[in-house]
């Protein structure tokens, strides 16, 4: 559940895949194991242009819980992952699911992820394609 490969100290594709796997399992404890204490999660929508922000582990966990409550069958598939320098990763995926109000979703999205020196996520910034 660590954010980096212990041997190299770098973020790996396997870590990004494991993180997404925890989302697909709807396992908040496992998901939160990837986050640093001082993390921030920017949602794909909200009142500000950057989206609603959840700051700190407690708020991030609460924000993620609302995602699972609002889209109980949410799944991230058709995924691809890239690892950059300096603790940066990108995950691209297709979110599918049905909201509690019965709206079926299928959106393409991307997460920009920054990791600290301990391999924990300090920023998760999510972007969704908006269908018109």
Structure in words:
- There is one protein chain.
- The chain has 132 residues and is of the alpha+beta class.
- 23% of the residues lie in helices and 39% in strands.
- The protein is globular.
- The chain is built from three helices and six strands; from the N terminus they run ααββαββββ.
- The N and C termini lie far apart (37 Å).
- A six-stranded mixed beta sheet has the order 2-1-6-5-4-3, covered by helices on one side.
- The mean pLDDT is 91.
- Strand 4 and strand 5 form a beta hairpin.
- Arithmetic mean pLDDT: 91
- Along the chain, the helix and strand elements come as HHEEHEEEE
What's the helix count?
3
The separation of the N and C termini measures 37 Å
Note the beta-strand portion.
Answer: 35-45%
Low-confidence stretches: none
* Structural class assignment: alpha+beta
Please list the strands of the largest sheet in the order they lie side by side: 2-1-6-5-4-3
Shape: globular
Kindly state the percentage of residues in helix. Answer: 10-25%
Biggest β-sheet: count, sense, barrel? 6 strands, mixed
Radius of gyration: 14 Å
Instruction: Count every beta strand, where a strand is a DSSP E run of 2 or more residues.
Output: 6
């Amino acid at each position: 559940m660590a954010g980096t490969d212990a041997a190299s100290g770098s973020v790996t594709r396997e870590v990004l895949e494991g993180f997404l796997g925890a989302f697909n399992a709807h396992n908040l404890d496992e998901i939160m194991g990837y986050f640093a204490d001082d993390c921030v999660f920017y949602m794909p929508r909200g009142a500000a242009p950057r989206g609603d922000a959840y700051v700190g582990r407690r708020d991030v966990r609460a924000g993620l819980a609302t995602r699972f409550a609002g889209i109980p069958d949410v799944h991230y598939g058709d995924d691809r992952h890239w690892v950059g320098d300096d603790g940066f990763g990108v995950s691209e995926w297709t979110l599918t699911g049905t909201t509690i109000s019965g709206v079926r979703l299928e959106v393409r999205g991307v997460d920009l992820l920054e990791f600290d020196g301990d391999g924990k996520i300090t920023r998760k910034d999510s972007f969704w394609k908006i269908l018109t």
